[in-house]
Specification:
alpha/beta; about 525 residues; about 35% helix; 8-stranded parallel beta barrel; single chain; 3-stranded mixed beta sheet; TIM Barrel; GH_1_N_CS; 18 strands
Length: about 525
C-alpha cells in the first residue's frame, strides 16, 4: 500500500500532471468567503534523477500508497499558512446518524505478494536488483499467509469482519506465458471456499501491482499484447470464482502502476517515458474491459470495479494560482481519469509537459458496478517552473502529527473524496484505508475519525456499501520494505506470531455493534480487550 507515497514523491514529488476540472474543491479548510478549488490526486515519493534535480521539497510516492496501499486524492481549497483550524470536519451527528445499517460491510484487506510468501515475480527481481529503499531487503516468505490462511481468516472473524480482500498472484498462476498451473488455481479455489465458509465474503483482486517475470519482456502494458495476456490470465481464473458471490477488482491502483513503473522508473518495469505511460493507460482500460468479458462469460452477472488510489490534493501556496491549477489537473488525472473512462467510455488525460491522451473506448462505457476508493492522506502540490513542473509534499499544517510513514492524518479529505464519487451514480466501496502506526496507539482514533467520514458521506447521499481496513496484518510494504506497520494485528517478522493491537477491540466493537463509538468509551469498558 505504501507504494503510492513513493511514486508521488518521485514525481519530484510529482511527475504526474492531470486533466483539469474547474469545479471548486472542498478538501481543505478555507477562510470565510474564499472559493475552494477541488483537485484530487494520490501521491508518494519517487527516486530518480528528476527527483534529485527538482525543488528541495520535491517528494516521492510511497510504496504503501502505491500499493494498497498504495493513491492520489482530491483537490483542496486554498489553505492559509496557519492551516485553518477545524473547518471541514464531519458535522455533529445524532445518535441515529452514528449507526451503520445491517447490510454495511466491515472487512479487511491484503494482497498476495505482501502476505503470501514464496513468489517469484517482477517484484522479486526488482528487489534483487537493489531497487528498494534498503537495497538488501527481500519479501521472501512475507508473513506466510499461504500456509497460515486458516489462522488469518480466524483473526478476521475475531475482529468482526464479514469480508476479506485478497489478490490472486498472476506469477503463481501463469509462471510461463501460456502455461497455467492447475495446482495453484485449485489452491486459490480452496482458500476462497474456506474463506466463504468462515462467513467472510471474498473480495478478489485480479492484479495487485505484480506481474510474472515474462510479462515486461514479452507483453508490457504499453503494447497491445498486454490486453491479450491479461485476458488469457483472467479466462484461466474465472472458473475458480464460481459460486463465491465475490466482489471483484480487476486492477488495483492502476495510476500508481503507471506513474511509478512507466513515467518515473521507480517500480517495475522501470520506464520513464510519457508516451509509453499514455499507451499503457489506454491498454489497462482495455484490459479491464477484457477481464469483464471473460468473467461474464463464466459467471454471468458480476460485481466488478477497480481500486483507485485517491489523494486529497491542496495547493502548497494557497495564494498562488498556478498551485491551484496544478491541483485541478493532478486531481483529475490521478483520481478520476480512469474511473471516468469506465463510466463514459472516454479517456481524457492532460499532463502538461509530460504526456496526454484522448481516446474513445466505447466498450468501456458502463463497465464497472462500483467505485473502489483507497484513501490514505492529503498531498500539497506546488507548481515548478521547470521539469517535472510539480512538487509534492505531505505537511502537518493542522498540528496533528504526521503518521509514522510521514503522511498527513487528514480524515476530512476522505470525506471529500467520498462525496466526489457521487458524480458516478454508482455504489462505493472503501477498498483500502489505514495508518502506519508502529506503536499501535493512534489507530483506534484514526478508525473513529475515518468511519465518521463514511457515515457523514452516507448521510449526504453517497452510497458507501463497505469499508475494508488496510491491513489485517503487518506486511511487506513494497519500496518501504518491512518498516511500516499498517496491521490490525502486529506481526513479529522473525517468529511470524500475530498479536492484536489496541485497534482490534475498537474495530470489533464498531463492526459487531453497528454503531460508531469514541475510542475513549471503549477503553472505559473492562471487557473491551480480548
Amino acid at each position: 500500500m505504501s507504494t503510492h507515497g513513493d511514486v508521488l514523491h518521485g514525481l519530484s514529488r510529482a511527475d504526474f500532471p492531470a486533466c483539469a476540472r474547474s469545479r471548486p474543491a472542498s478538501c481543505a479548510p478555507r477562510r470565510a468567503g474564499e472559493h475552494a478549488r477541488r483537485p484530487r490526486i494520490r501521491l508518494g515519493k519517487r527516486r530518480g534523477a528528476e527527483a534529485e534535480n527538482s525543488a528541495p521539497d520535491a517528494t516521492r510516492i510511497h510504496s504503501r500508497q502505491l500499493s494498497a496501499a498504495s493513491h492520489w486524492p482530491v483537490a483542496h481549497a486554498a489553505l492559509p499558512p496557519d492551516g485553518g483550524g477545524g473547518l471541514g470536519c464531519a458535522p455533529a451527528m445524532s445518535a441515529d446518524e452514528k449507526t451503520f445499517p445491517r447490510d454495511f460491510t466491515f472487512g479487511v484487506a491484503t494482497s498476495a505478494y505482501q502476505v503470501e510468501g514464496g513468489i517469484e515475480n517482477d517484484w522479486a527481481e526488482w528487489e534483487r536488483a537493489g531497487r528498494l529503499k534498503e537495497p538488501h531487503t527481500r519479501c521472501g516468505r512475507a508473513v506466510d499467509h499461504w500456509n497460515r490462511y486458516e489462522e488469518d481468516y480466524g483473526l478476521a472473524v475475531d475482529v468482526g469482519a464479514s469480508a476479506f480482500r485478497v489478490s490472486l498472484e498472476w506469477a503463481r498462476i501463469e509462471p510461463e506465458r501460456g502455461r497455467f498451473d492447475g495446482a495453484a488455481l485449485e489452491a486459490y479455489r480452496e482458500r476462497l471456499l474456506r474463506m466463504k465458509a468462515r462467513g467472510l465474503r471474498p473480495v478478489v483482486t485480479l492484479h495487485h501491482f505484480t506481474h510474472p517475470t515474462w510479462f515486461h519482456r514479452e507483453t508490457p502494458w504499453h503494447t497491445p499484447a498486454s490486453v491479450d495476456a491479461f485476458r488469457a490470465y483472467v479466462r484461466a481464473c474465472a472458473p475458480l470464482l464460481k459460486g463465491l458471490e465475490a466482489l471483484l477488482i480487476s486492477l488495483n491502483e492502476p495510476m500508481v502502476v503507471l506513474l511509478g513503473g512507466y513515467l518515473q522508473g521507480l517500480l517495475p518495469p522501470g520506464f520513464a517515458d510519457g508516451p509509453k505511460t499514455m499507451a499503457a493507460l489506454e491498454n489497462m482500460v482495455r484490459a479491464h474491459v477484457a477481464a469483464r468479458e471473460e468473467l461474464q462469460a463464466v459467471l454471468g452477472r458480476v460485481e466488478l470495479g477497480i481500486s483507485q488510489n485517491m489523494l486529497c490534493f491542496t495547493p502548497d501556496r494557497w495564494w498562488h494560482p498556478l498551485d491551484h491549477a496544478a491541483v485541478r489537473l493532478g486531481a483529475h488525472a490521478y483520481n478520476h481519469a480512469f474511473h471516468e473512462a469506465l463510466v463514459t467510455g472516454k479517456l481524457r488525460v492532460t499532463m502538461p509537459g509530460l504526456a496526454s491522451t484522448r481516446a474513445e473506448i466505447p466498450q468501456a462505457r458502463g463497465s464497472c458496478e462500483f467505485i473502489g476508493v483507497n484513501y490514505y492522506s492529503r498531498a500539497h502540490l506546488r507548481f515548478l517552473p521547470r521539469y517535472p513542473f510539480l512538487a509534492f509534499q505531505f505537511r502537518d499544517r493542522l498540528g496533528r502529527g504526521l503518521t509514522d510513514i510521514g503522511w498527513e492524518d487528514y480524515p476530512e479529505g476522505f470525506g471529500e473524496i467520498l462525496r466526489e464519487t457521487k458524480r458516478y451514480g454508482l455504489p462505493v466501496w472503501v477498498t483500502e484505508n489505514g495508518i502506519d502506526d508502529r506503536g499501535g496507539q493512534r489507530r483506534p482514533h484514526f478508525l473513529h475519525r475515518h468511519l465518521e467520514q463514511v457515515l457523514a458521506a452516507r448521510a449526504q447521499g453517497v452510497d458507501v456499501r463497505g469499508y475494508l481496513y488496510w491491513s489485517l496484518l503487518d506486511n511487506f510494504e513494497w519500496l518501504e520494505g518491512w518498516g511500516p506497520r499498517f496491521g490490525l494485528y502486529h506481526v513479529d517478522f522473525d517468529t511470524l506470531e500475530r498479536r492484536p493491537t489496541p485497534a482490534c477491540a475498537y474495530f470489533r466493537a464498531v463492526a459487531q455493534g453497528r454503531r460508531l463509538i469514541a475510542p475513549e468509551a471503549l477503553e472505559a469498558q473492562p471487557s473491551a480487550a480480548r
